[in-house]
Amino acid sequence: MPALPALLLGLVPLTLTAVAVPAAAADRVVETVLSVRGTPEPDGAPVTLDATLLTTDPSVPRPAIVLAHGLGGTKADSLPTARTLARDGYAVLVYTARGFGASGGLVHLDDPAYEGRDAVAMVDEAAERPEVEKTGTGVSADPVLGFAGASYGGAVALEVAALDRRVDAVVPAFTWADLTSALVPQSRVAGGPGSLADVTPAGGTGVLKAAWAALLFTGTAAGTGEGPGEQATPSVCGRFAADVCRAYVEAARSGTAGDDLLALARRSSPDLSRVTAPTLMIQGEDDTLFGLDQADRVMRGLPPTTPAATAWVPGGHDASIAVDDQLDRVTAWFDRYLKGDAAAPVQPGLSVTVPQTTLVGTGGGADDSGAAPRVLTADAYPGRGGAAPGLRTVALDGGVQTVVNPAGARPGALTNLPGSGAAGAAAAVAGYPLAVLPGQAATFTSAPVGRPFDLVGSGRVRVDVTSSGTEAVLFAGVWDLGPDDPQTHRPTSTVLPGRAVAPVRLTGLTPGRSTTVEVALPAVSHQVPVGHRLRLVLATTDSAYAGPLAPAIYRVALAEPSLTLPALGALTASGGSRLDVPLPLVVGVALVVLAALVGLVLLRRARRSFGAAPERADLADVPLVVEGLEKTYADGLKAVDGVTFTAERGQVVGLLGPNGAGKTTTLRMVVGLMRPDAGAVWVEGRGVHGGADVLASVGALIEGPGFLPHLSGRANLEAYWQATGRPLEEAHLEEVLAIADLGTSVERRVRGYSQGMRQRLGIAQAMLGLPSLLLLDEPTNGLDPPQITAMRRVLADYAAAGRTVLVSSHLLAEVEQSCDHVVVMARGRVLLSEATSTLTGDGRRRLEEAFLDLVGTGPAGGGT
Amino acid sequence: MTALPLRAEVRRQLSRRRTLVVFAVLVALPLVLVAAFALGRSDDPTTARGFVDLAQDSGANLVVFALFASTGFLLVVVVALFAGDPVPSEASWSSLRYLLTAPVRRERLLRQKLVAAALFSGAAFVFLPAWTLLVGGLAYGWGPYVGPTGDQLGYPLVLARLGLVVLYLALSLGVVGAFAFFLGTLTDAPLAAVGGAVVLWIVCAILDQITALGGLRQGLPGHFAFAWADALAPTVDYSAMAQGALWSVGYAVVLVAAAVWRFLRKDVTS
Fold first, then answer.
1. Residue B1 domain-assigned?
2. Inter-chain CB proximity A452 and B150 less than 8 Å
3. What is the average pLDDT score of chain A?
4. In Å, how far is A183's CA from the nearest CA of chain B?
5. Cα separation of A479 and B95, whole Å?
6. Residue A623 and residue A832: Cα distance in Å, rounded?
7. In this protein, which residues make up the domain named ABC transporter (chain A) (predicted)?
8. Is residue A147 a part of any domain in this protein?
9. Is residue B238 part of a domain?
């Protein structure tokens, strides 16, 4: 058994969770509030940025990490993460972006000229701080510095990496690489996917993500007020810069992205080709604002020489943006590229967490351990710097369908409630009837999948669209439908992975003429369970987008009857096979097992010292010597008190005494069933203890026979003999059975035996193997007179063959008639030990009187 | 010492009615399940596919269902019976003293009883899934195992995983057997030893419900009883199983050591 855990440990990589070391947490973080000069506004107004530097020991220069917050936040949002990083040995600089909180200036929506330059100012600040580690000295001092941020701050991280070569590592999260495709997505593509989530638009402006744009702009404007530190009052523009405000208002009013907005979005997208700092891009799988395709853009937009990795993780703008959940990754990235820690965990080029949907809940795993999520990884991001990933297809079924875009785009399909978090998720559960409106959606369905199917990345589909006008807008989504309910014939579950749809705007169409278009479907990470189907839905409306208000009719059909998906052959499922065991448990069990092994060895050694050779050579010829036995029971009764006697070869010795004299207790000690408190028993000169080998030459019947009730008499004797481990020929089974004289009953189960039959079988069992010393405790119990007479003869014959018989009895006559020697016991003591042949005349009377006297006064009680 | 060869001990136990009854119950279990599912099928169909529906997917699924249904109690009783009953049974028949004077050394007697108990328990652990797989395969076909997440395990992988499950079950129920065995060296009443171990299991299951105990619950026998479900995922998370096995093995070693220590010093008066 002890070898088994070791075997398991060898099979899988072992991580031992040691007890948490609170030492690091005890470090006090020193927080210094700073005021950093930012880029002036276009009108020359100076801007100061509110910042804080955190480190546990200001006297030690440390690698720096700058943290940028999300839209509408302040540096306070970054403080918890900053403290954790500070305790990990970093000098952390957090700051409030211009236009928010206590910082001055206006919001330019991550314009490199403003927010980007501000971030560079932070790098300048870090370069001058003594708390920050630097390479080089004086003017050429280059801080060892990383930049991280989520959402609005994530884009700044990418921007500063593009602007400033002094940045040594960046971790953008839940953010954009191309703001145009995030705000005005166009999923019409061409030429097949170049990577896992390739949504490179081909042809024309996309569809305004109206709900998200409104939420971001209006929400932020209302929350920021008109100046730093002022009470927030409702206003149209808030602290947004005038050009940003104007571009948004125009787009919101018209429902289309104007040139101003497009120009602004283009400007606010980082120039990825200039980024040389190692980049870890973390993107959320629940994010209809900045989808997984944005992370794909980063991976393909970075120069091939820039070390880069991306992680698709649960969360995002539709759920929650929890950078702390990803802190292990972030720290590993900075440890590797800032501290130069080669032992930091390597981040795979791609890591995708695939959420597991269950049919029946957890179904009885270890409750609080939680199932590890399935994670797919690839060393290199599929499609980065190399060949495009392979393709696989899923056949879709569905003929030509006609759908209508209603006037005013109402009612609009409800696939998602942007910014509503959990409420949106709840809506999505019941969502199919709300999301796929009759007459407004064409559907194409696959057969049920036979194996769990990973829907990872962005799929492609080619459709033929005929419009009643020159333009067409469609929203494409892929649903996961559960098996149909046999009663309602509706799917038991409907899931729109990521709650994402891909808008396609087709322009320049000829009314009535079909156009084939390739559509990039939303990039998702989802597992389709067995028996579920995929359904492509092409809807004319989506309430989260500003679709065309003019009514139109489209005829939609599949150009190719299949859905094309990136092949996941390069991705390996990892994170599954895991062995995480608390170290103290392993050590504790190992110690227990070790202690048990030591105990076993000691026991063996102790047992081995009992040799086969006589320990008392002088007694080697004496069948039984009992010397000064004493035994006191737990209740204080001294049952045996200094019993000494000897049985010689060829004798039948009678152990005579009233009930309670200590006869049986003595016999139990003779065969080692009990440990005497004092004294010793020698059989042929060898000491007797529990299970001593010398007991093989002792046969015993003590306090009645004991048999397996479900076996026959013969089988019992055979089973007993088998237990001795000696060969059957030595048993003399037939001779012994003849003595028992059970006739045909010997083949019956012992359960049905009379007391006399059991007794005879018990005597027979004691005689098995014809032991040289036979101990019989009250052997005549339950025997009738003829059997008693026969038994006497048997015992006499047995002793006559040179063996020894010790018979205990409470009947004087019994002992007198069958024994050569008598040992009289009472109250645990030996009163008399004499040959019966010498017990004549005076001696005979003495015995009789003594015995009667004893019987009359002996303690009442059982035969112990 | 060759006293009490294993063959002799196995024969002593094999001929007993309780052994036969245990295996009869194990034989009946999958048949009863299949019959119950067949009877229950006429009921109105449920909207969601539950665990019971999954059980009828394939033979392998029926095995998992049967193991799930029996881990909590049936297998516990079986192990407690096989491990807790042999020593006090001999004592209650008065045959223990004759074995010891045969002579069989006490540590030898315990060892052989324990090995035989392990053999019988192991046989039950192997027999139940193997027989259920046969019954389920004939009833529901030989398709792959389909997990609650829709993941599938095909042949022969599912056989290897079921082997892992059986191995883990054997290790994690070792604590029950060891406790029953320990009780058996204290008492002459077989029922006390077997019942005591089952009661321990139930009490621990109740304590395990008290979440306020926090991390202490991990040390409760039975806390990781169902961790074998982890072995049926596409990739195996060995953490819970390793912890369950370690706790069980740790307890078992201590309990068996206590049993040996106690029995070697015991005055056999039965």
1. no
2. yes
3. 85
4. 35
5. 71
6. 20
7. 624-852
8. yes
9. yes
Domain housing B37: 6-265
Whole-model pTM above 0.80?
Answer: no
Rounded to whole angstroms, how far apart are CA atoms A173 and A175?
A: 5
- Verify whether the Cβ–Cβ distance A576 to B267 is below 8 Å: no
Is B83 a domain residue? yes
- Report pLDDT digits (tens) over B46-104: 444 566 777 888 899 999 999 998 988 999 999 999 999 999 999 999 999 998 888 88
Both tokens of A809, joined, read 């009895």
* Option in B94, B250, B256 nearest A589 (CB): B250
Q: Which residues of chain A have pLDDT under 50?
A: 1-25, 225-229, 358-370, 858-864
Q: Which of A578, A705, A709 lies closest to B239 in CB terms?
A: A578
Identify the helix (H) or strand (E) that includes residue B264: helix B239-265
Of A4, A487, A711, the CB nearest to B15: A711
Instruction: Tell me what pLDDT residue A24 has.
Output: 47
**Rounded to whole angstroms, how far apart are CA atoms A313 and A286?**
9
Same domain, A527 and A674: no
Domain match, A80 and A150 both: yes
Give me the residues of chain B with pLDDT under 50, please.
1, 45-48
User: Are residues A665 and A528 part of one domain?
Assistant: no
- CA within 13 Å, CB half, A376: 21
Q: What is the pLDDT of residue A431?
A: 74
Tokens, residue A252:
């919101």
Domain tally for chain A? 4
CB pairs under 8 A between A and B: 249
Q: Considering A172, A191, A207, which residue would you say is the last residue of a domain?
A: A172
Q: What is d(CA A806, CA A670) in angstroms, rounded to the nearest whole number?
A: 11
pLDDT attached to residue A160: 95
Which residues of B are less than 8 Å from A527 in CB distance?
Answer: 149-150
Closest partner CB to A765 (pick from B98, B250, B257): B98
Domain, as residue range, for A86? 30-172
- How many Å apart are CA A594 and CA A598, to the nearest integer? 6
Give the pLDDT of residue A23: 45
**C-beta atoms of B237 and A360 within 8 A:** no
Query: Total structural domains in chain B?
Result: 1
Residues A155 and B66: their CA atoms lie apart, in Å, by 54
For position A846, what pLDDT does the model report? 64
Contact between chains at A705 and B94 (C-beta distance less than 8 A)? yes
The ipTM assigned to this model is: 0.87
pLDDT tens by residue, A360-388: 333 333 333 345 567 888 888 988 877 77
Specify the pLDDT at position A860.
42
Strands A552-558 and A401-405, by their bridges, are: antiparallel
- Domain annotation covers residue B232: yes
Q: Mark yes or no for CB contact A603/B235 under 8 Å.
A: no
Q: Which chain A residue is nearest to residue B236, measuring alpha carbons?
A: A577
Q: Are residues A744 and A813 in the same domain?
A: yes
pLDDT at residue number A861: 41
Chain B residues inside the 8 Å CB shell of A5: 242, 245-246, 249
